[in-house]
Amino acid sequence: MAKAPVKYYVVDAFTDSAFKGNPAAVCLLEEERDEKWLQAVAAEFNISETSYLTRITDSVSPYPRFRLRWFTPVTEVDLCGHATLATAHTLFATGLVNSNIIEFDTLSGILTAEKVSDSNPTDVSKIQNGRHHCFLIELNFPAVPITEFNSSEVSAISKALNGAQLIDVKRTTTADDLFVVLPSAKSVIELEPQFDAILKCPGRGIIVSGVSPSDSEFDFSSRFFCPKNGINEDPVTGSAHCSLALYWSEKLRKCDFMAYQASARGGILGLHLDKKNQRVLLRGKAVTVMEGSLLVVLPCGKSVAELQPSFDDIKRLGARGIIVSGIASPESGFDIASARGGMVKVHLDEENQRVFLQGKAVTVMEGTLLV
């Protein structure tokens, strides 16, 4: 089948600096694609989220409306804040829309993104390296309530968080994430989670947060761990703040926040809780770092290995890594197998102690690094 290029951008969200914040791939589709293709492309990008955008041409809305879906490397998700911000940034920055408001039709309903001025009171730019960008993006998301978590598994959760002191443990009502509060933002920043243990905890993932000291420019800090979705730690999680805003509004008696997500890449979010309508407004910036074309139409290859290694235990061994191999079944036509799949013809020259490798390759993307 002939190759059909699909335009894509890679955008760092909730930051004004390249290689900070949370990267998302934004794919512009002319028509809907099947889930197998969408998931394969997301696995190929292998970043926390890939978004797929299809324009809705028969909408009666006064604003441009697009169908939007989000995929991690292993599954589709119902809501993703940073990939929505990245998608809106792409549309605004490339001039694909001539409106300051965009609507997205998603699994979480109709979401809006609005281009707003830097002069807004919730000013992210004043603490993001002083660099000037022409606009912020404000996302209008549904607030996500949290509920009590009464379980004998609290001790297991503490163990998964490396014995951290848990001030509060709750659960979100939509994504089924554990919602854990630590004594301080410092505790959140210094936390060293055990990802293998998190895999055994209830729920989808764990949102961890703690209040910042009074002299900080932030109100609270957070992190999000979700190895069950193929993401050990999400760099910046907009959707998690739909619960965080509700919780910290009750604790701090306010509705406007500056929040910091304390991952290695870091991210800054301006938040406003609309209590009356139970909505959370998230504000941030974004930077486009790559653009190009996806060249393939259909995925190929099939996973053949069933090994599920414990990466935390491997890390504790002290070696650089582990090479694992096994004899493939005779009918497979191969001698050894790996997880993602690949074919290599190998010849060992025993006399000269050289190895000759023969294989093929497929170009799946081409583009330009912009920063």
UniProtKB/TrEMBL annotation:
It comes from the Eukaryota. One of its GO terms (molecular function) is isomerase activity. It holds the Pfam family PhzC-PhzF. This is Phenazine biosynthesis PhzF protein. GO terms for cellular component: cytoplasm. Belongs to the PhzF family. The lineage of its organism: Eukaryota, Viridiplantae, Streptophyta, Embryophyta, Tracheophyta. Keywords: Isomerase.
